[in-house]
Design goal:
148 residues, alpha+beta, four-stranded antiparallel beta sheet, three-stranded antiparallel beta sheet, 3 helices, 30% strand, elongated
């Protein structure tokens, strides 16, 4: 049996299509290739974007901003000294880019000028910390990336 150039092209196209189909099926069915969004409420968060910009500007204007320190007990989040810690309302969200099951949110109910996140809640690696708080009717947003 003799192959001509037309048969060779058809065989090449079929081989290429088979490779692509194998690649697509492998990528879409393996659990190791997880294709989750960063957040489930993506469009709702997009609508709040301008408010986040204003809150971030408010936070940057502070003389003493929020600071984050590592200690043996965990993460210590220090709030500005000129704020009355009893009037601070808000929440802190810790986002783990590599595993969404490790994400958690803590409501801010302070009994001191700092908040302690226990070490047992934090695994080693990268964390994105977002603190949104309200003080005297003004919103503040603080974001930081941290390697723990």
């Amino acid at each position: 049996m003799k192959l001509n150039w037309g048969t060779g092209i058809v065989i090449s196209i079929i081989a290429f299509m088979s490779f692509i189909m194998y690649f697509v099926i492998t990528m879409s069915t393996k659990q190791g290739y997880n294709h989750d969004l960063v957040t489930e409420k993506y469009y709702q968060k997009e609508l709040d974007f301008q408010q986040n910009i204003e809150a971030t500007k408010n936070a940057k204007r502070l003389k003493n901003n929020i600071t984050i320190n590592k200690s043996k007990e965990g993460l210590i989040i220090n709030f500005p000294k000129d704020f009355d810690y009893k009037k601070i309302k808000g929440k802190m969200f810790l986002y783990r880019p590599s595993n969404k099951q490790l994400d958690f949110e803590i409501p801010l109910s302070l009994s001191n000028t700092y908040l302690l996140v226990p070490e047992n809640r934090l695994l080693g690696g990268r964390w994105n910390i977002t603190i949104s708080l309200q003080y005297k009717g003004r919103n503040y947003l603080f974001k930081e990336e941290l390697i723990y």
